[in-house]
Amino acid sequence: MAICHFEVKAVSRATGRSAVAAAAYRTGETLTNDRDGVTHDYAKRTGVDGKFVVVPSGCEWAADRSKLWNAAEAAERRKDAKVAREYVVAIPHELDAPDREALVRGFAESIVERFGVAADVALHAPGKDGDQRNHHAHILTTTRVVEPDGLGAKTRQLDVASTAAAEVSSLRELWAMQCNEALEKNHQKARVEPRSYAAQGIDRVPGVHLGPEATAIERREQKAQGQNY
Hints:
By secondary structure, the protein is α+β, with helices and mostly antiparallel strands. The protein has a single domain, classed as BirA Bifunctional Protein, domain 2 (2-Layer Sandwich), CATH 3.30.930.30. It contains six helices and nine strands; from the N terminus they run E-H-E-E-E-H-E-H-E-E-E-E-H-H-H. The strands form three sheets. The chain has a five-stranded antiparallel sheet with strand order 1-5-7-6-4, with helices on both faces. Strands 2-3 form a two-stranded antiparallel sheet. A two-stranded antiparallel ribbon has the order 8-9. Helix 3 (about 95-115) runs antiparallel to helix 4. The protein is globular, with a radius of gyration of 18 Å.
């Protein structure tokens, strides 16, 4: 079974983060935050397999990464504002590079159509010291609707407790469905299962998605102890 990792989290000023910095880091670019004048330079970052911006029809201005995320910062006044939302997805390693990008692009387009936001996508390769199957993508979206002349109203579906859980569950199922369609199209037997082991009636402790940094640490520790990772 292919890996099914799907996570949704907020980029919030309450934790000292900015949308401009998040976008620069994930895409390996140099972006300046007009709000505080800080330049975030990640141009030398390696491991970015691909990057692109998906926007609603008629909102071509938002395809400019710098304009998009500076607009997201300018639209918020609160010191604890959520300035972006991030989806982190594991991409089936059974797919080749063009198919991985097509899969993530299709999912990003679904998010844009559903919420009316813009999606800034970065595909990441497995880390040098991590699990070499760990192809994944970061999809950074605005928390406001994107309109032809700027950003509009807040999208609250993922912020309100009464709707957030159902929305995330629906998106996870959509991602799994699109993964499985891509795997079937490419004649791969592997399939993604979005349900937990408990929901499937399987008595097994789920594995923990460590991510590249934690995997690298675990690998170094085991090597230092003379163990194979």
